[in-house]
Design a protein that fits this description.
alpha/beta; Rossmann fold; about 25% helix; about 30% strand; globular
Length: about 150
């Protein structure tokens, strides 16, 4: 596994980093976002979706469990949030279906309960709060995802 660390000094920096990586997403990637509540997972995802080419509004799926963001060529980004679930249930089935779809980017928040479903070579993004506005984003990824971080 490879690892790279970025530092964000603002919400705008986090959006910009997400956008930069999102521009390189092709479909088939699975990203697991790990942080505390309010850590910047949705902000980072907003940047990812924008860079990926979706004009859909991005918000936290904590209450709805999942959102789908589309772009004009039919590719999609699925955004799952398992925070409020004790069991993955039917949403885990949906995750299993889309994470192997080469036309879909999959973003998972609070993925502990679906850990066994997630692919081993997913991109893990750990976001650490330094203070109210600064974050450290640590990415762990397989060689095949190196193109996202150049």
């Amino acid at each position: 596994m490879n690892s790279i660390t970025y530092h964000s000094n603002s919400i705008e920096d986090t959006l910009r980093l997400g956008r930069s990586i999102g521009e390189r997403l092709r479909g088939g990637e699975v990203l697991e976002l790990i942080s505390d509540l309010g850590g910047g997972k949705t902000t980072f995802t907003r940047g990812l979706a924008d860079g990926f080419g979706s004009t859909d509004p991005v918000s936290s799926p904590s209450f709805t469990i999942s959102y789908v963001y589309s772009r004009s060529d039919g590719k999609k980004m699925y955004h799952f949030d398992f925070y409020r679930l004790e069991d993955a249930g039917i949403v885990g089935n949906e995750l299993s279906e889309v994470e192997n779809d080469e036309s879909v980017v999959t973003v998972v928040e609070w993925g502990d309960i679906v850990h066994d479903i997630l692919p081993r070579d997913r991109i893990v993004v750990r976001i650490k709060n330094i203070d109210d506005s600064r974050r450290e984003l640590i990415f762990k990824f397989a060689n095949r995802y190196s193109r996202l971080f150049t």
